[in-house]
Write the structure tokens for this entry.
Amino acid sequence: MLELDGLRFAHPGQDRQYAFSLSVAPGEILGISGASGAGKSTLLDLIAGFVTPLSGSLTLDGQSLVGLAPEQRPVAILFQADNLFDHLSIDRNLSLARPHGRLPQDERDSSLEAVGLAGLGRRRASTLSGGQKQRAALARCLLLDRPVLLLDEPFSALDVDTADAMRELVRKLVSARNWHTLLVSHQESDLAMSDRRLHLEAERLQTG
């Protein structure tokens, strides 16, 4: 279980303070909605370790994640865009999921097949469509296979059909891998794939 209990944060020089308490079970997708500036990205940054909380706890299966550097955390992130290095091949991008870029070809191939990109490993990332790039980024999450998956508006730049296919694929992988998943989005079509939803209002999470 991923658990946040009274996790508080304030940006330097600002009086406004965010407070987060929530839990996410293995294989669950928790949808997070809220107006711009409500703290959705701040919530993900705290879990990923990009910012440091003022107080509170953040644990995975009872083990504290507070104090761990981002690269030490059991977290994978899929952003709206800029998930890949455009000048590198897809194979090379996937290899970055492992220390020193050492990843057997058969693992790269199987991960690309799982996301519907079989045979495209040698293509430069810059030559792929937006949907293909998101699939490749998801393949890297698959290779990382970290227990916490953070989704930050990952489908908003895609056309309707591609976004629908990506949502279905993510839902399948989350269930199969038992990832604890947080999905931040302002789109109802994205939030509909969640098992539960929380709404950020007045810098706090509410059921909704």
Q: What stands out?
A: The CA atoms of residues 9 and 15 lie 10 Å apart. The two ends are 21 Å apart (CA to CA).
